[in-house]
Automatic annotation (TrEMBL):
Residues 357-418 form the RNA-binding S4 domain. The gene is tyrS. This is Tyrosine--tRNA ligase. It is found in: Cytoplasm. A motif ('HIGH' region) lies at residues 65-74. Its EC number is 6.1.1.1. It comes from Noviherbaspirillum album. One of its GO terms (molecular function) is tyrosine-tRNA ligase activity. Belongs to the class-I aminoacyl-tRNA synthetase family. TyrS type 2 subfamily.
Length: 418
């Protein structure tokens, strides 16, 4: 892509336009739940110009396929994209297949191992399919940044690198910390913000979205667009959603996540496990209910309504979004059944041999405990049941037959032991 020739004439000073009621309404929707909108006055003018010309804004979100599955934390920014999409603007879902080979250093204190091309392609297969559970795929422009990054070549990469100084790159907080601490920073990591910024040039982005940890990279895109003669994009950062623990950001590696392709019953139970205080954070960032409706819920809880009722509504909304209304009803029934000590309908069925089998081995082979020692510890704590009856004998030998094993409140298996 020869950006130097095709993109030089877009940096034309724009006359200040009046802001209509519809523009102000769009601005208010855009700002809901955001951390920052930079620069708001510029974005308002972009909206006004779009309304006047009928040309939709180009709104970009880039995700590197570093893992094959998306979780609710990813949907915070996808929800915002969908809102802007519904307002008539063009949303671009950018899969960073090229930048994945570098590895985003955001928030890292060590060099991220680059992914192989095979890993990237495998992960990318499922990314857009999962994002389409939030976005309208028929109205989404899907792009891969290898389209313009691969053709750059060595000469183009050098020319791009010449547009930014090392001092400016090292202003980035995580680089600064690592540099001062003497922690190695690989040269290829310094290229990452430039490559992400170049994506904005190639796509002629009007607005780029990202998490708060992406702010530096988004600003680099803004500066590079100026260098290439484009009107600079505005940037919108969304808060990072805390995980189920209410402390760390949601992450599969931390085990505090809700995957958007997980079964409805699992999603529902996980969402019901968040604290009453964290529930409001999830409402703000994940719910499509109006702010007035959420404020009413808060008043009702302050007035004595059980917060569990409100949490149920949130869990049902999320399960309905990614599955169906019927799945949400079934998940609620399953959750209530488990709370009463009942056995869920959809439990794994396992066939084992070796009867009579020690309870520790049985629980391990049924994949209900990671080890026999953990299984025996659960027995000791009263967390193991066979057909609803508590097991207290760590030396129990289980005879042949078919029965339901339960560990804790959530783990079940119907076992046939021969």
């Amino acid at each position: 892509m020869d950006t130097s020739k095709t993109l030089q004439n877009n940096n034309i000073p724009q006359q200040s336009l009046p802001l209509s009621d519809s523009v102000m309404e769009t601005l208010a929707i855009t700002k809901r739940g955001v951390d920052e909108l930079l620069i708001e006055s510029e974005f308002a003018q972009k909206l006004a110009r779009s309304e006047q010309t009928g040309k939709p804004l180009r709104i970009k979100l880039g995700l590197d396929p570093t893992a094959p599955d998306l979780h609710l934390g990813h949907t915070v920014v996808l929800n915002k994209m969908r809102q802007l999409q519904d307002l008539g603007h063009t949303v671009i879902f950018l899969i960073g297949d090229f930048t994945s080979m570098i590895g985003d250093p955001s928030g890292r204190n060590i060099t991220r191992p680059p992914l192989t091309r095979e890993q990237i392609e495998e992960n990318a297969k499922t990314y857009f399919a999962q994002a389409s559970l939030v976005l309208d795929p028929a109205r989404t422009e899907i792009r891969y940044n290898s389209e313009w990054c691969d053709p750059l070549g060595a000469r183009g990469m050098i020319q791009l690198s010449a547009k930014y100084t090392v001092a400016r790159i090292l202003e980035r907080e995580d680089f600064t910390k690592r540099f001062k601490a003497g922690t190695p920073i690989s040269v290829h990591e310094l290229l990452y913000p430039l490559m992400q910024g170049y994506d904005s040039v190639a796509l002629q982005s009007d607005l780029e979205l990202g998490g708060t940890d992406q702010k530096f990279n988004l600003l680099v895109g803004r500066e590079l667009q100026k260098d290439y003669g484009q009107e600079p994009q505005c940037i919108l950062t969304m808060p990072l959603l805390e995980g189920l623990d209410g402390v760390e950001k949601m992450s599969k590696s931390k085990g505090n996540y809700v995957g958007i392709t997980e079964p409805g019953n699992t999603m529902f139970a996980k969402l019901m496990s968040i604290s009453d205080d964290m529930m409001w954070r999830y409402y703000e960032l994940l719910s499509f209910r109006s702010l007035d409706e959420i404020a009413t819920f808060r008043k009702e809880v302050e007035g004595g309504r059980n917060p569990r009722d409100i949490k149920v509504l949130l869990a049902q909304e999320i399960v309905t979004r990614f599955h169906s209304k019927q799945a949400a009803e079934d998940a609620l029934a399953d959750f209530n059944n488990r709370a009463k000590g009942g056995i869920p309908d959809d439990i794994p069925e396992i066939s084992l041999s070796g009867a009579p089998l020690g309870i520790g081995q049985l629980l391990k082979q049924a994949n209900l405990c990671p080890s026999t020692s953990e299984a025996l510890r659960m027995v000791e704590q009263g967390g193991v049941r066979i057909d609803g009856d508590a097991v207290s004998d760590k030396g129990l030998k289980v005879e042949a037959g078919t029965f339901v094993l339960q560990v804790g409140k959530r783990k079940f298996a119907r076992v046939t032991l021969a």
